[in-house]
Amino acid sequence: MGNIPSQNIEQIAAANDIVEVIGSYFPLKRAGSAFKALCPFHQEKTPSFTVSPQRQTFHCFGCGAGGSVFRFVMDYEHLDFPAAVRKLAARAGVPVIEERGLGGDDDRQHETRRTLLQLHAEATEWFHENLLKSKAGAPARDYLKRRGIDRRIAHDWQIGFAPDSWDTFLKWAIDRGYRRPQILQSGLIKPRDETQPDGDAYDRFRGRIMFPIHNDVGEVIAFSGRVLDQETEAAKYLNSPETPLFRKGRVLFGLHKTKRGLIEANCAIVCEGQLDLITIFEAGITNVVAPQGTAFTENQARILKRFVNEVVLCFDADTAGQKAAERSLDALLQNNLIVRVAEMPAGEDPDSMIRKRGREEFEKRVAEARDFFDSWIEHEAAATDLDSLGAKMQLARKLAETVARVQDPLMRGEVANKVTARLGVARVDFERLLSKPARDRGTPEESRGEAMAPTPSHEVAMLCLLALRHPEAREFLLAQEWREMLGQTPDAEILGRVLGTDLRPDDPASINAFMTGLPTGEEALVSSWMLQKMPPNGLEVARGWWNGLRQAVVRRQLQIAEGRMKLPRLTTGEAVNLQKQIVDLTEQLRELSRFSSVRVLDT
């Protein structure tokens, strides 16, 4: 992504009210002039997460997380800055302006991404047209109709059809002006011989119903193709390969449509396939997702944790579905998700169940879903001869391996109680089998591998607050020789950054744009200052604190000079110069001391 001008960042910030943005993820309650909620970045019982509509910033006084609307989206959605900018720009309908350089890897990556996104968007339209209008798409239309997918649903989900031909898509893409290497990079075609990419190539998807896979801002980044002929030896589902756009283990199908439902329910219904998800969603149950495959990866579970605390697995009622649930467990537990299992009738999946028995019966199954561990322990115990000491101990070790992965200590203790009660083993013996759980992730900064910013002195902090929020105080500080002064003041780098930018204290969008250029720890500090009370006499306070900084600098210079006077073997000239310097610094300190520094109590 190229450089985004600060004016464009300000425009995007101004178009996204931070209360509305954060309120779209979880409820905020008004508290005076601000809004509060339980912090999403650490566990707490009393709300310390504060959002200021006046300053357009957030800050948690519990864990220290805070910053601009961009920082919130970055931290909550686990996005980098460019992705957060795109997301907020798309939300507000503001175009992102990029100032590109003169070539280089970043430019090439940006151009590759732009081209691949455009190709995927146009391919989606082409596949969709094939489904709706082509003669070859008639069997696919009939199949979808039998599955309850009408024209409206097909349009809403951009479902398409790939003709059963060798290179029809390849020829179409070339006719559209795409070059063969670009089409290969998209994964929509593949070479006949992988060792010779310049040789013959053919369409990856042939004779399949096409489900576009979107990222969470709604861009098509890949496809999943389903066969029509159940008797064929080909895989039932075929996904795009990994590309610069698509990483299979980092995407949840349907998330771009279901995020709101997930947040409102604080629970995710997880199914296996695209048709299951679409049927559930179109039945009015919107808190649903599907992994790209049958088992969750660590990244997918981490994404899901951003929206919910609980997961209900609705995999098929067969051995494969049971195995998929077990394989998903580790990733879900690593993210402290509560996991339940909804039992589907034998031979049915969520799609067929809703079509045959209706939404109410499916919702009842979800509501009655058993805790995963209850179901899992019972299933494993039923398959084991518990009268055999060897078999019992082998099962205890197997269960302990999974129980040890539970991060939450209370949940881990509850599960351990269930296991020991069902197997009839002593709790103390089972505890010995548990390995130490993975280390807690810690604070948001630690989880990102970023250190907190060093806490500046009170003088520097107060001057930062005034320079950020008081126009007259800022003008006073800018009129001083601040660069030279701050270069001699410990931990004053952040004040230098505040004064070194052309931010406007009375414009929250300008402050947001400034904060995007700060390290995470410093942004959190700034967010805390933005929520503090301002002294009524800001200009006088700024003069007083600035005078205090100048005195501190002169004192250090005086101490250094006096220390040098004690050095042996000074020449007469060096001694005279040092004596003059000491006299001059002493006079400066006397003059500065005549001005009484204005102080205010900590707020």
Summary tags:
DNA primase DNAg catalytic core, N-terminal domain, 17 strands, globular, alpha+beta, Dna Topoisomerase Vi A Subunit, Chain: A, domain 2, DNA Primase, Chain A, disordered C terminus, 6-stranded mixed beta sheet, 28 helices
Provide a concise account of the structure shown.
With 603 residues, this protein is an alpha+beta fold. It folds into five domains: 6-92, Alpha-Beta Complex (DNA Primase, Chain A); 106-246, DNA primase DNAg catalytic core, N-terminal domain, CATH 3.90.980.10; 250-368, Dna Topoisomerase Vi A Subunit, Chain: A, domain 2 (3-Layer(aba) Sandwich), CATH 3.40.1360.10; 376-444, no CATH class; 458-593, DNAb Helicase, Chain A (Orthogonal Bundle), CATH 1.10.860. Helices cover 51% and strands 11% of the residues.
